[in-house]
Write a structure and sequence with these properties.
Layout lengths: L1 H20 L4 H8 L9 H20 L20 H17 L3 H9 L3 H27 L1
């Protein structure tokens, strides 16, 4: 029960941060991505704050075998830049640029009743299911 309460609190804090920063507003995100038009650089402050905090958290996490609540830490081991990473990054960027959503803000926006977010989350889930299907199919061949 303690773990679920901690997860809820962290998720709530993250969602509130997304709302306050404007990351759940597709117009604000698209304005940030529109370098040739009415560029809105305000989301750079969000990223500028998030990157050092994330970097510090990963440095701390590498020194630990367990989370603060006792769960095992399983950090990514892959270090190479390969085709799946590049393709996934391009698809993520295209989706972000077309819709103005990325997964976290889309879930928060969907919970607040934005119809576009519901469509985005549905498409995201369909894409994840397609990936799993293709990955399993590929694994069976090898």
């Amino acid at each position: 029960m303690r773990m679920r309460l901690a997860e809820f609190c962290v998720g709530l804090l993250f969602g509130m941060g997304l709302l306050l920063s404007g990351m759940t507003n597709p117009g604000k995100v698209l304005g940030f991505l529109d370098l040739a038009g009415a560029w809105d650089p305000s989301l750079m402050l969000v990223m500028g704050g998030a990157i050092p905090i994330s970097a510090a958290a990963f440095v701390l996490a590498r020194r630990r075998a367990q989370s603060f609540l006792g769960s095992p830490l399983r950090l990514p081991k892959a270090r190479q830049i390969d085709a799946p990473l590049i393709v996934g990054s391009v698809l993520f960027g295209l989706g972000w640029g077309l819709a103005g959503f990325c997964p976290g803000p889309a879930l928060v926006s969907m919970a607040s009743g934005q119809p576009k977010a519901l469509l985005f989350v549905g498409a995201m889930i369909a894409g994840m299911a397609l990936f799993e299907f293709m990955d399993r199919r590929s694994a069976k061949r090898h």
